[in-house]
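Tokens in:
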């Protein structure tokens, strides 16, 4: 599916929007109002983050997406995606940061 530069209100766009609405509605269905607000505000934050990555060209955007997926997978396997108020374990976070810095330094050496 190609990215459209100018999305005019159309039947296809309306279908996409309704599909998004329905999926988000299903996702937050069992939450309280306050919980749904927290989740949806966090999704808005995620949307802003994705928007900021749009300045990357297509190739870099794909690599960025892959890297984010790998980090997510690491966090999942390390048991860091469970609900805690404190966020990720600082040691796990440091390990990921160390890997990123090591890769950056290796590329700098090339």
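Residues out:
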């Amino acid at each position: 599916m190609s990215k459209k530069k100018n999305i005019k209100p159309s039947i296809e766009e309306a279908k996409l929007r309704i599909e998004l609405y329905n999926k988000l509605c299903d996702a937050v269905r069992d939450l309280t109002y306050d919980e749904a607000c927290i989740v949806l505000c966090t999704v808005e934050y995620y949307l802003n983050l994705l928007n900021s990555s749009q300045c990357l060209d297509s190739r870099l955007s794909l690599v960025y997406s892959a890297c984010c997926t790998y980090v997510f997978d690491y966090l999942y396997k390390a048991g860091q995606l469970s609900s805690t108020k404190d966020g990720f374990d600082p040691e796990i976070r440091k390990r990921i940061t160390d890997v990123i810095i090591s890769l950056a330094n290796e590329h700098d050496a090339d």
